[in-house]
Automatic annotation (TrEMBL):
It holds the Pfam family BPD_transp_1_N. NCBIfam families: PRK10352.1. One of its GO terms (molecular function) is dipeptide transmembrane transporter activity. It comes from Larsenimonas rhizosphaerae. Gene3D superfamilies: MetI-like. The gene is nikB. One of its GO terms (cellular component) is plasma membrane. The lineage of its organism: Bacteria, Pseudomonadati, Pseudomonadota, Gammaproteobacteria, Oceanospirillales. This is Nickel ABC transporter permease subunit NikB. Belongs to the binding-protein-dependent transport system permease family. OppBC subfamily. Its main location: membrane. PANTHER family: DIPEPTIDE TRANSPORT SYSTEM PERMEASE PROTEIN DPPB-RELATED. The keyword Transmembrane applies. Residues 108-305 form the ABC transmembrane type-1 domain.
């Protein structure tokens, strides 16, 4: 019997295979968030009347529920929403009356820019601190990085944000305390979001560096007389960075989640701030579209990381193929 051979899946095929699962994932997320929103406590019609300055009489509540479509059975409400979503119509805000998708797309660039800056900061400091700790294991640079990592994973990002505002804005007056504008406005929010991820990644890179240096091929390179710098660049660092690249997919989700809290501290005009207001006002259409949009951003970001990882490490794309050409 002929044994199956191994072939490498093209990168475009890997991406298409992952993207094929995206509609199913979005559908499941939409069902879950729709049910959770409607079985929770509170009445959106009451909040609608409160914000409109209307006395919440029985007649006013009935008219508000009819206006918002909340008097229909739950299945019919979801069916109407799903039909609109398939045509990129995610409804209108209960509070402002504006199209939900347009609102979120107006706020999304501010959040994505903050997350992008935080991701760059995370990559730079993670590699720098990881290399420092891995190059001097159990010496004072390593102990310093461990201390920084301990603080990073122990301190909540919102508390760090308050401390940074107190230090750099109130006492030293170096940085603007809040708002969205020039490059200086990014410094404190980006650092507050990324410190925990930097701490985790730096420790991970340190461990990967020590494991890579213990590999046999690195030992042979050392015996051949390669300098420490060439050993690091050619044999150690490429192997040690692969786990860090994989972890960056999860880091994107952590940075997005952290941005929602930090945006409210620094008055950042992003979707996180909009979502908090929607939660307070029980603005269901905004929350429904917001959840789907963040799911889409997170999945696409992780897909990009997976494609880069598969490009750097082709073993991920290796499949067993039967002699006839059928995948097994």
């Amino acid at each position: 019997m002929t044994e199956p051979v191994r072939r490498f899946e093209p990168l475009w095929q890997l991406a298409l295979r992952r993207l094929a699962l995206l509609p199913i994932l979005l559908l499941l997320v939409s069902v879950i968030i729709f049910v959770l929103l409607h079985v929770g406590r509170g009445d959106p019609a009451m909040d609608y009347l409160r914000l409109s300055g209307i006395t919440p009489t029985d007649q006013a509540l009935m008219e508000a529920r009819h206006r918002l479509g909340l008097d229909l059975p739950l299945v019919q409400q979801y069916g109407r929403w799903l039909w609109g979503a398939l045509h990129l119509d995610f409804g209108t805000s209960f509070i402002s009356g504006e199209p939900v998708l347009a609102m979120l797309l107006d706020y999304l660039p501010a959040t994505l820019s903050l997350v992008a800056v935080a991701l760059v900061v995370t990559a730079i400091f993670s590699v720098a601190l990881g290399l420092l700790a891995g190059s001097y294991p159990d010496r004072w640079p390593d102990h310093l990085v461990r201390f920084i990592a301990f603080l990073g994973v122990s301190m909540p990002n919102f508390w760090l944000g308050f401390l940074m505002v107190l230090l750099f804005s109130v006492w030293l007056e170096w940085l603007p305390p809040m708002g969205y504008g020039g490059p200086l406005h990014f410094v404190m929010p980006a650092m507050a979001i990324s410190l925990m991820t930097i701490s985790i990644n730096a420790r991970m890179l340190r461990t990967s560096l020590l494991e890579a240096r213990a590999q046999r091929h690195v030992h042979y390179a050392r015996l051949r007389g390669l300098s420490s710098g060439r050993q690091l660049r050619a044999h150690v660092l490429p192997h040690a960075l692969l786990p860090l690249l994989t972890a960056s997919g999860m880091a994107i989700g952590e940075l997005i989640g952290g941005a929602f809290v930090i945006e409210n501290i620094f008055a950042w005009p992003g979707v996180g701030r909009l979502a908090v207001e929607a939660i307070h006002n029980r603005d269901f259409p905004v929350l429904q579209c917001f959840t789907l949009l963040m799911t889409l951003v997170y999945v696409l970001a992780n897909l990009g990381v997976d494609v880069v990882h598969a490009w750097l490490d082709p073993r991920i794309r290796r499949h067993r193929v039967a002699p006839s050409g059928d995948m097994t």
